[in-house]
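Please, structure for the following, as tokens.
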Amino acid sequence: MYIINLEYKKEISEVEKKLEEHIKFLDEYYNKGIFICSGKKVPRTGGIIIAKINCKEDLEIIIKKDPFYINGIADYKIIEFVPSKYKEGFEKFL
């Protein structure tokens, strides 16, 4: 499992211009069962995506398809983690 930490490099006005395309990108990988949850950070300096995928290199390929990446809107930090404790029912995401 991975946490993808996005940090905006451009003004929010630039983020907003590509937001619809970014949401379509997210939807594609939700539909494939790779993205589990995502959202904006508070304050709005970027976002977080939680992904279930076995290979970091495959995740890096996916990230390069994000309009935010393509248009230089955000930097991405990938953090791998292995859940060892979780709420009952969450195991379906593991």
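The beta strands are 2-8, 35-40, 46-51, 74-80. The chain has three helices and four strands.
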